[in-house]
Sequence to fold (420 residues):
Amino acid sequence: MFQIVLSLVIGVFIGWNFHLFYISLSPENLIPQSLTLSKNYEPQPMEEAILPKTVLLSKEENISEKSEANLTTVPKKFLNLKLIDKRIIEKESNQKESNQINHVKSAYFQVLLKQNNFADAMAFYMEGTPEEIKAYKLILKVYFYDKASISLNETIEQLLQYIDIEPINLDFQLYLAKIYYENNEFTKSINYLFELQNSYHDKELQLITDKLNTTIEVYIKKLSDSKNISKLILFLEDIISKSSTPDKYIIQLAVLYKDLEIYDKAEEILSEINSDSTYNNRALSIIREIQIHQDENRLYQYIIPLNKVGSHFTVNLKINNIPLTLLLDTGATYTFIDTDKIPDLEEGEEILLNTAGGKITGESYLAETLTLQNLELTNFQIIVAPFKEQSTDGLLGMNFFQKFNFKIDQERAVLYLGNN
Fold:
Protein backbone atom coordinates (compact mmCIF):
# COMPACT_ATOMS: atom_id res chain seq x y z
CA MET A 1 0.00 0.00 0.00
CA PHE A 2 2.83 2.38 0.87
CA GLN A 3 4.48 1.66 -2.46
CA ILE A 4 1.27 2.56 -4.33
CA VAL A 5 0.97 5.91 -2.53
CA LEU A 6 4.66 6.68 -3.13
CA SER A 7 4.28 5.96 -6.82
CA LEU A 8 1.29 8.29 -7.06
CA VAL A 9 3.18 11.15 -5.30
CA ILE A 10 6.22 10.70 -7.58
CA GLY A 11 3.93 10.70 -10.65
CA VAL A 12 2.17 13.88 -9.58
CA PHE A 13 5.55 15.57 -8.88
CA ILE A 14 6.94 14.62 -12.29
CA GLY A 15 3.73 15.72 -14.01
CA TRP A 16 3.74 19.05 -12.25
CA ASN A 17 7.34 19.71 -13.28
CA PHE A 18 6.50 18.97 -16.91
CA HIS A 19 3.60 21.38 -16.58
CA LEU A 20 5.88 24.10 -15.24
CA PHE A 21 8.41 23.45 -18.01
CA TYR A 22 5.70 23.81 -20.64
CA ILE A 23 4.49 27.07 -19.14
CA SER A 24 8.07 28.48 -19.16
CA LEU A 25 8.23 27.81 -22.91
CA SER A 26 4.97 29.77 -23.48
CA PRO A 27 5.09 32.79 -21.14
CA GLU A 28 2.35 34.60 -23.00
CA ASN A 29 -0.17 32.12 -21.64
CA LEU A 30 0.30 33.71 -18.25
CA ILE A 31 -1.79 36.64 -19.57
CA PRO A 32 -5.49 35.92 -19.42
CA GLN A 33 -7.00 35.16 -22.83
CA SER A 34 -9.55 37.88 -22.29
CA LEU A 35 -6.85 40.59 -22.08
CA THR A 36 -6.85 42.92 -25.15
CA LEU A 37 -3.95 45.43 -25.48
CA SER A 38 -5.68 48.21 -27.41
CA LYS A 39 -6.81 51.80 -26.96
CA ASN A 40 -10.08 50.67 -25.50
CA TYR A 41 -8.46 48.43 -22.95
CA GLU A 42 -9.47 49.13 -19.36
CA PRO A 43 -6.80 47.76 -17.05
CA GLN A 44 -7.61 45.03 -14.54
CA PRO A 45 -6.24 45.21 -11.03
CA MET A 46 -2.52 44.60 -10.88
CA GLU A 47 -2.89 41.32 -9.09
CA GLU A 48 -5.07 39.92 -11.88
CA ALA A 49 -2.64 40.29 -14.77
CA ILE A 50 1.00 41.27 -14.46
CA LEU A 51 3.64 40.85 -17.14
CA PRO A 52 6.50 38.82 -15.73
CA LYS A 53 9.79 40.63 -15.46
CA THR A 54 11.43 38.06 -17.68
CA VAL A 55 9.37 39.09 -20.73
CA LEU A 56 11.42 40.91 -23.48
CA LEU A 57 14.48 41.29 -21.23
CA SER A 58 16.79 39.02 -23.18
CA LYS A 59 19.89 40.93 -24.38
CA GLU A 60 19.91 38.89 -27.54
CA GLU A 61 16.35 39.82 -28.45
CA ASN A 62 15.94 42.68 -30.98
CA ILE A 63 13.11 45.17 -30.77
CA SER A 64 11.04 44.56 -33.86
CA GLU A 65 9.14 47.24 -35.70
CA LYS A 66 5.98 45.46 -34.57
CA SER A 67 6.90 45.64 -30.90
CA GLU A 68 7.84 49.33 -31.26
CA ALA A 69 4.49 50.09 -32.85
CA ASN A 70 2.65 48.21 -30.12
CA LEU A 71 4.33 50.30 -27.41
CA THR A 72 1.90 53.11 -28.10
CA THR A 73 -1.07 50.85 -27.35
CA VAL A 74 0.17 49.02 -24.23
CA PRO A 75 -1.12 50.56 -20.97
CA LYS A 76 1.53 52.17 -18.82
CA LYS A 77 1.27 49.56 -16.07
CA PHE A 78 2.29 46.84 -18.57
CA LEU A 79 5.29 48.68 -20.02
CA ASN A 80 8.65 47.24 -19.20
CA LEU A 81 10.93 50.16 -18.28
CA LYS A 82 14.06 48.29 -19.29
CA LEU A 83 12.59 47.81 -22.75
CA ILE A 84 11.97 51.59 -23.10
CA ASP A 85 15.47 52.37 -21.85
CA LYS A 86 16.86 50.04 -24.45
CA ARG A 87 14.86 51.77 -27.17
CA ILE A 88 16.08 55.23 -26.13
CA ILE A 89 19.68 54.04 -25.97
CA GLU A 90 19.45 52.57 -29.46
CA LYS A 91 17.87 55.79 -30.80
CA GLU A 92 20.56 57.98 -29.24
CA SER A 93 23.23 55.65 -30.51
CA ASN A 94 21.84 55.78 -34.04
CA GLN A 95 21.57 59.60 -33.85
CA LYS A 96 25.16 59.89 -32.67
CA GLU A 97 26.33 57.65 -35.46
CA SER A 98 24.31 59.68 -37.99
CA ASN A 99 25.81 62.94 -36.72
CA GLN A 100 29.32 61.52 -37.03
CA ILE A 101 28.63 60.45 -40.61
CA ASN A 102 27.21 63.91 -41.47
CA HIS A 103 30.25 65.57 -39.92
CA VAL A 104 32.61 63.43 -41.99
CA LYS A 105 30.67 64.14 -45.18
CA SER A 106 30.64 67.90 -44.51
CA ALA A 107 34.40 67.83 -43.90
CA TYR A 108 34.94 65.94 -47.16
CA PHE A 109 32.73 68.45 -49.00
CA GLN A 110 34.86 71.30 -47.63
CA VAL A 111 38.06 69.55 -48.71
CA LEU A 112 36.78 69.26 -52.29
CA LEU A 113 36.00 72.98 -52.35
CA LYS A 114 39.35 73.97 -50.83
CA GLN A 115 41.09 71.87 -53.49
CA ASN A 116 39.09 73.84 -56.09
CA ASN A 117 37.53 70.57 -57.21
CA PHE A 118 34.17 72.22 -57.70
CA ALA A 119 32.76 69.69 -60.19
CA ASP A 120 33.31 66.78 -57.79
CA ALA A 121 31.95 68.84 -54.91
CA MET A 122 28.74 69.40 -56.85
CA ALA A 123 28.48 65.70 -57.70
CA PHE A 124 28.90 64.92 -54.01
CA TYR A 125 26.32 67.62 -53.18
CA MET A 126 23.68 66.06 -55.43
CA GLU A 127 24.01 62.70 -53.65
CA GLY A 128 23.35 64.25 -50.22
CA THR A 129 20.26 63.80 -48.10
CA PRO A 130 18.08 66.87 -47.38
CA GLU A 131 19.76 67.22 -43.98
CA GLU A 132 23.24 66.96 -45.51
CA ILE A 133 22.40 69.43 -48.30
CA LYS A 134 21.28 71.92 -45.66
CA ALA A 135 24.78 71.74 -44.13
CA TYR A 136 26.43 71.94 -47.58
CA LYS A 137 24.55 75.17 -48.35
CA LEU A 138 26.02 76.86 -45.27
CA ILE A 139 29.49 75.73 -46.34
CA LEU A 140 28.91 77.06 -49.88
CA LYS A 141 27.84 80.49 -48.59
CA VAL A 142 31.16 80.91 -46.79
CA TYR A 143 33.06 79.46 -49.75
CA PHE A 144 31.57 81.85 -52.33
CA TYR A 145 31.98 84.85 -50.01
CA ASP A 146 35.68 84.10 -49.49
CA LYS A 147 36.33 83.23 -53.12
CA ALA A 148 34.74 86.43 -54.46
CA SER A 149 37.56 88.48 -52.93
CA ILE A 150 40.17 86.28 -54.64
CA SER A 151 38.77 85.37 -58.05
CA LEU A 152 35.58 87.21 -58.96
CA ASN A 153 35.13 85.76 -62.44
CA GLU A 154 35.63 82.17 -61.25
CA THR A 155 33.17 82.80 -58.42
CA ILE A 156 30.55 83.97 -60.93
CA GLU A 157 31.17 80.91 -63.11
CA GLN A 158 30.82 78.50 -60.17
CA LEU A 159 27.76 80.28 -58.82
CA LEU A 160 26.08 79.85 -62.20
CA GLN A 161 26.92 76.13 -62.12
CA TYR A 162 25.44 75.79 -58.65
CA ILE A 163 22.27 77.71 -59.59
CA ASP A 164 21.78 75.29 -62.49
CA ILE A 165 21.67 72.53 -59.85
CA GLU A 166 19.48 74.53 -57.43
CA PRO A 167 17.43 76.85 -59.72
CA ILE A 168 15.19 77.97 -56.85
CA ASN A 169 17.57 79.27 -54.23
CA LEU A 170 17.05 82.99 -53.73
CA ASP A 171 19.98 83.59 -51.35
CA PHE A 172 22.56 82.46 -53.90
CA GLN A 173 20.76 84.17 -56.80
CA LEU A 174 20.71 87.52 -55.02
CA TYR A 175 24.37 87.06 -54.17
CA LEU A 176 25.16 86.54 -57.86
CA ALA A 177 23.30 89.79 -58.69
CA LYS A 178 25.29 91.54 -55.95
CA ILE A 179 28.60 90.28 -57.37
CA TYR A 180 27.67 91.62 -60.82
CA TYR A 181 26.80 94.95 -59.17
CA GLU A 182 30.05 95.16 -57.21
CA ASN A 183 31.99 94.29 -60.36
CA ASN A 184 30.34 97.32 -62.09
CA GLU A 185 28.42 94.97 -64.40
CA PHE A 186 25.19 96.84 -63.73
CA THR A 187 23.29 95.73 -66.80
CA LYS A 188 24.02 92.05 -66.03
CA SER A 189 22.84 92.52 -62.46
CA ILE A 190 19.69 94.34 -63.56
CA ASN A 191 18.79 91.88 -66.32
CA TYR A 192 19.34 88.95 -63.95
CA LEU A 193 17.03 90.52 -61.33
CA PHE A 194 14.39 91.05 -64.01
CA GLU A 195 14.59 87.30 -64.79
CA LEU A 196 14.24 86.40 -61.11
CA GLN A 197 10.99 88.35 -60.88
CA ASN A 198 9.36 85.69 -63.07
CA SER A 199 10.23 82.87 -60.64
CA TYR A 200 9.06 84.23 -57.28
CA HIS A 201 5.98 85.67 -55.58
CA ASP A 202 4.92 87.54 -52.45
CA LYS A 203 7.75 88.47 -50.03
CA GLU A 204 10.48 87.02 -52.22
CA LEU A 205 9.23 89.01 -55.23
CA GLN A 206 9.16 92.21 -53.17
CA LEU A 207 12.73 91.61 -52.02
CA ILE A 208 13.89 91.12 -55.63
CA THR A 209 12.01 94.24 -56.78
CA ASP A 210 13.59 96.36 -54.03
CA LYS A 211 17.08 95.15 -55.03
CA LEU A 212 16.29 95.83 -58.68
CA ASN A 213 15.05 99.39 -58.09
CA THR A 214 18.09 100.23 -55.97
CA THR A 215 20.50 98.91 -58.61
CA ILE A 216 18.73 100.82 -61.38
CA GLU A 217 18.89 104.10 -59.42
CA VAL A 218 22.60 103.67 -58.69
CA TYR A 219 23.37 103.00 -62.36
CA ILE A 220 21.29 105.97 -63.53
CA LYS A 221 23.21 108.25 -61.16
CA LYS A 222 26.51 106.81 -62.33
CA LEU A 223 25.67 107.51 -65.98
CA SER A 224 24.36 110.99 -65.14
CA ASP A 225 27.46 111.92 -63.14
CA SER A 226 29.70 110.76 -65.98
CA LYS A 227 27.62 112.83 -68.46
CA ASN A 228 27.18 109.73 -70.60
CA ILE A 229 23.82 110.96 -71.86
CA SER A 230 23.56 108.74 -74.94
CA LYS A 231 24.15 105.58 -72.88
CA LEU A 232 21.72 106.81 -70.24
CA ILE A 233 18.99 107.30 -72.85
CA LEU A 234 19.48 103.79 -74.22
CA PHE A 235 19.44 102.34 -70.71
CA LEU A 236 16.22 104.15 -69.74
CA GLU A 237 14.53 103.04 -72.97
CA ASP A 238 15.47 99.43 -72.17
CA ILE A 239 14.22 99.67 -68.56
CA ILE A 240 10.91 101.17 -69.70
CA SER A 241 10.37 98.22 -72.07
CA LYS A 242 11.04 95.66 -69.29
CA SER A 243 9.58 97.23 -66.17
CA SER A 244 6.04 96.49 -65.01
CA THR A 245 5.94 100.00 -63.45
CA PRO A 246 7.79 102.19 -65.99
CA ASP A 247 6.24 105.62 -65.25
CA LYS A 248 9.11 106.75 -63.03
CA TYR A 249 11.65 106.02 -65.76
CA ILE A 250 9.43 107.60 -68.45
CA ILE A 251 9.60 110.86 -66.47
CA GLN A 252 13.40 110.67 -66.24
CA LEU A 253 13.76 110.00 -69.96
CA ALA A 254 11.32 112.78 -70.86
CA VAL A 255 13.38 115.28 -68.83
CA LEU A 256 16.49 114.21 -70.73
CA TYR A 257 14.75 114.67 -74.09
CA LYS A 258 13.45 118.07 -72.95
CA ASP A 259 16.92 119.26 -71.92
CA LEU A 260 18.26 118.12 -75.28
CA GLU A 261 15.37 120.00 -76.93
CA ILE A 262 14.05 116.79 -78.49
CA TYR A 263 10.56 117.89 -77.64
CA ASP A 264 8.61 115.58 -79.91
CA LYS A 265 10.09 112.43 -78.31
CA ALA A 266 9.56 113.83 -74.81
CA GLU A 267 5.89 114.50 -75.51
CA GLU A 268 5.48 111.11 -77.19
CA ILE A 269 6.65 109.04 -74.23
CA LEU A 270 4.82 111.25 -71.71
CA SER A 271 1.58 110.35 -73.47
CA GLU A 272 2.09 106.76 -72.21
CA ILE A 273 1.43 107.84 -68.61
CA ASN A 274 -2.20 107.31 -67.63
CA SER A 275 -4.25 110.06 -66.02
CA ASP A 276 -4.66 107.99 -62.83
CA SER A 277 -0.88 107.50 -62.44
CA THR A 278 0.88 109.08 -59.48
CA TYR A 279 3.29 110.57 -62.04
CA ASN A 280 0.57 112.24 -64.12
CA ASN A 281 0.98 115.70 -62.54
CA ARG A 282 4.73 115.60 -63.12
CA ALA A 283 4.13 114.60 -66.75
CA LEU A 284 1.77 117.56 -67.25
CA SER A 285 4.34 119.90 -65.68
CA ILE A 286 7.03 118.73 -68.12
CA ILE A 287 4.66 119.24 -71.05
CA ARG A 288 4.05 122.85 -69.92
CA GLU A 289 7.83 123.41 -69.66
CA ILE A 290 8.23 122.08 -73.21
CA GLN A 291 5.58 124.49 -74.48
CA ILE A 292 7.38 127.40 -72.79
CA HIS A 293 10.68 126.38 -74.37
CA GLN A 294 9.02 126.07 -77.76
CA ASP A 295 7.61 129.57 -77.37
CA GLU A 296 11.07 130.80 -76.42
CA ASN A 297 12.53 129.21 -79.52
CA ARG A 298 10.06 131.14 -81.62
CA LEU A 299 10.86 134.37 -79.72
CA TYR A 300 14.65 133.95 -79.61
CA GLN A 301 16.45 133.21 -82.84
CA TYR A 302 19.82 132.55 -81.23
CA ILE A 303 20.49 130.02 -78.48
CA ILE A 304 24.06 130.34 -77.21
CA PRO A 305 25.61 127.80 -74.83
CA LEU A 306 27.53 129.35 -71.92
CA ASN A 307 30.39 128.22 -69.72
CA LYS A 308 30.03 128.51 -65.96
CA VAL A 309 32.96 129.88 -63.97
CA GLY A 310 32.12 129.91 -60.29
CA SER A 311 28.86 131.84 -60.02
CA HIS A 312 29.41 133.64 -63.34
CA PHE A 313 29.03 132.72 -67.01
CA THR A 314 31.39 133.20 -69.93
CA VAL A 315 30.88 133.04 -73.66
CA ASN A 316 33.29 132.26 -76.52
CA LEU A 317 33.27 134.68 -79.45
CA LYS A 318 35.55 136.41 -81.95
CA ILE A 319 36.38 140.06 -82.36
CA ASN A 320 38.14 140.87 -85.62
CA ASN A 321 38.54 137.06 -85.96
CA ILE A 322 40.49 136.88 -82.70
CA PRO A 323 39.07 134.17 -80.36
CA LEU A 324 38.19 135.56 -76.95
CA THR A 325 36.44 134.41 -73.79
CA LEU A 326 34.34 137.17 -72.23
CA LEU A 327 32.53 137.31 -68.92
CA LEU A 328 28.83 138.22 -69.17
CA ASP A 329 28.17 141.43 -67.23
CA THR A 330 24.83 143.14 -67.77
CA GLY A 331 25.86 145.76 -65.18
CA ALA A 332 28.73 147.05 -67.35
CA THR A 333 27.92 149.82 -69.84
CA TYR A 334 30.56 148.76 -72.35
CA THR A 335 32.32 145.65 -73.56
CA PHE A 336 35.87 145.52 -72.23
CA ILE A 337 38.82 143.75 -73.77
CA ASP A 338 42.22 143.37 -72.11
CA THR A 339 44.90 145.51 -73.72
CA ASP A 340 47.12 142.53 -74.49
CA LYS A 341 44.40 140.62 -76.33
CA ILE A 342 43.65 142.97 -79.24
CA PRO A 343 46.80 143.96 -81.12
CA ASP A 344 47.11 146.07 -84.27
CA LEU A 345 44.15 148.31 -83.59
CA GLU A 346 44.00 151.75 -85.14
CA GLU A 347 44.37 154.65 -82.77
CA GLY A 348 41.29 154.90 -80.58
CA GLU A 349 39.63 157.60 -78.54
CA GLU A 350 40.68 157.95 -74.94
CA ILE A 351 37.88 157.52 -72.41
CA LEU A 352 37.65 157.83 -68.61
CA LEU A 353 35.74 155.00 -66.94
CA ASN A 354 34.35 154.42 -63.47
CA THR A 355 34.92 150.86 -62.31
CA ALA A 356 34.54 148.97 -59.05
CA GLY A 357 38.27 149.50 -58.52
CA GLY A 358 38.08 153.22 -59.21
CA LYS A 359 38.52 155.44 -62.28
CA ILE A 360 40.61 154.10 -65.16
CA THR A 361 41.57 155.35 -68.59
CA GLY A 362 40.90 153.23 -71.64
CA GLU A 363 40.64 153.58 -75.38
CA SER A 364 37.43 153.20 -77.36
CA TYR A 365 37.52 151.39 -80.71
CA LEU A 366 35.07 150.24 -83.33
CA ALA A 367 35.74 146.59 -84.00
CA GLU A 368 35.15 145.56 -87.56
CA THR A 369 33.29 142.38 -86.56
CA LEU A 370 31.99 140.60 -83.50
CA THR A 371 31.03 137.02 -84.28
CA LEU A 372 29.00 134.81 -81.92
CA GLN A 373 28.13 131.47 -83.54
CA ASN A 374 26.02 132.42 -86.60
CA LEU A 375 25.43 135.95 -85.27
CA GLU A 376 27.65 138.75 -86.57
CA LEU A 377 27.79 142.45 -85.64
CA THR A 378 29.83 145.09 -87.46
CA ASN A 379 31.38 148.33 -86.22
CA PHE A 380 30.87 147.21 -82.66
CA GLN A 381 32.22 149.49 -79.92
CA ILE A 382 34.74 147.99 -77.52
CA ILE A 383 36.85 149.51 -74.74
CA VAL A 384 40.47 148.36 -74.52
CA ALA A 385 41.93 148.67 -71.05
CA PRO A 386 43.96 146.60 -68.60
CA PHE A 387 41.72 143.74 -67.51
CA LYS A 388 43.36 141.11 -65.33
CA GLU A 389 40.75 138.45 -64.65
CA GLN A 390 41.73 134.82 -64.45
CA SER A 391 40.46 132.61 -67.31
CA THR A 392 38.77 135.50 -69.18
CA ASP A 393 39.90 138.09 -71.73
CA GLY A 394 37.40 140.77 -70.78
CA LEU A 395 33.67 141.19 -70.32
CA LEU A 396 30.61 141.45 -72.54
CA GLY A 397 28.60 144.52 -71.46
CA MET A 398 25.20 146.09 -72.03
CA ASN A 399 26.20 147.80 -75.29
CA PHE A 400 25.94 144.25 -76.71
CA PHE A 401 22.81 143.04 -74.88
CA GLN A 402 20.72 146.15 -75.62
CA LYS A 403 20.72 145.24 -79.28
CA PHE A 404 18.55 142.13 -78.53
CA ASN A 405 15.74 140.67 -76.54
CA PHE A 406 17.75 138.43 -74.30
CA LYS A 407 17.39 135.92 -71.49
CA ILE A 408 20.02 134.04 -69.53
CA ASP A 409 18.87 130.60 -68.40
CA GLN A 410 21.23 130.01 -65.49
CA GLU A 411 19.97 126.49 -64.78
CA ARG A 412 20.66 125.29 -68.31
CA ALA A 413 23.60 127.70 -68.89
CA VAL A 414 22.09 129.09 -72.10
CA LEU A 415 21.89 132.64 -73.51
CA TYR A 416 18.77 133.38 -75.59
CA LEU A 417 18.96 136.24 -78.06
CA GLY A 418 16.10 137.60 -80.22
CA ASN A 419 15.71 140.55 -82.54
CA ASN A 420 14.24 143.72 -81.04
Summary: The longest helix spans residues 81-114. DSSP finds 14 helices and eleven strands in the chain.
